[in-house]
Write a structure and sequence with these properties.
globular; 98 residues; alpha+beta
Length: 98
Amino acid sequence: MPELMIVSRPVAAGARRKSLEGCYVIGEWIVVPEERRIEKSGRVVGMNRELMDALLCLIDAEGEFVSLERLKSRMWPNTFVSDEPAEFYISTLKEALE
């Protein structure tokens, strides 16, 4: 499985994880979950629900390892899903954040 570690910080200073605006910063990227998009230097990348769910699962883990099972249960609750879709979304996230 492709590896991706997300370490984020809130946009607003003083907030532990989530700012009042509900945005996160990953490196130079700003993550806007409510609008399902990420942006950097004027570049905006839209995301579907599954892709944003995968990203938020990694953000919520605060740098800890996220198993495929945990990722799949966040993205597709109460549904059996093989590993391939989750692996696809992790690969897509890696490409989007480059």
